[in-house]
Specification:
globular; alpha+beta; 8 strands; 219 residues
């Protein structure tokens, strides 16, 4: 049964958190993270009410854990950065890559980091915690729930299977242009047939649209 967990980490325990020492008002959001062999967190957003993205870039440039960092978009009070991490530093990224967990969202502020993770079973979170403990990564579990508990009653009217299929397709790049995966690969990962996945996605689309942007006249 798919589960969701929140783990907290002190601000200084993740290298990017060093920016909070000089700019405590800043907030960071790690953008759409998909594990690969090099790094699982290449993109991140910085929210700064002062809009001083170039000064923040200088802070990141000084981090020894980063090979390079580029300010890709400067939108005033928001900036999109791309980082290339030194392979000798993995930290929590190594724990994510080494265990069967996926990052749903991750954000940081002066008060600390919150990582929302998803896994096929709660045992994967136990493996993640053990990996962190063995490598001196100070994380603490603050929430654990089944996926049905987080989606039921959310107003989207999705079954757990539909939710899982839609999110997996999104994370693997099925909706990207060009596509980075196909239905055969996604179906194999879920352990179902291609027609079953196609039908599951179509039912999920219908339920999601009916619950969000389409008025079907039933309310």
């Amino acid at each position: 049964m798919t589960s969701i967990a929140d783990f907290l980490m002190p601000a200084a325990a993740f290298p990017l958190g060093r920016v909070f020492e000089e700019r405590p008002e800043v907030r960071l959001e790690l953008d759409r993270v998909v594990p690969n062999t090099d790094t699982v967190m290449p993109f991140f957003w910085v929210h700064d009410p002062e809009g001083e993205m170039e000064e923040i870039l200088e802070v990141f440039d000084s981090l020894g854990e980063l090979r390079s960092v580029v300010l890709m978009e400067d939108l005033g009070d928001r900036g999109l950065f791309r980082a290339e991490w030194d392979p000798d530093y993995m930290g929590i990224m190594g724990a994510i890559a080494a265990t069967d967990v996926t990052v749903v969202s991750a954000s940081g502020s002066e008060s600390g980091w919150t990582f929302e993770l998803r896994a096929r079973s709660s045992e994967s979170f136990s493996e993640f915690q053990r990996h962190c403990d063995d490598h001196g990564i100070p994380v603490s579990l603050t929430r654990l729930s089944r996926l049905t508990e987080t989606t039921t009653g959310s107003g989207y009217d999705l079954t757990e299977e539909q939710y899982e299929a839609l999110v997996l397709a999104f994370e693997r790049g099925y909706y990207d242009e060009p596509r980075r995966t196909n239905l055969e690969e996604l179906a194999a990962e879920l352990g179902i047939s291609r027609p079953s996945l196609s039908a599951r996605l179509k039912r999920g689309y219908r339920n999601l649209l009916a619950a969000t942007i389409v008025d079907d006249g039933t309310t």
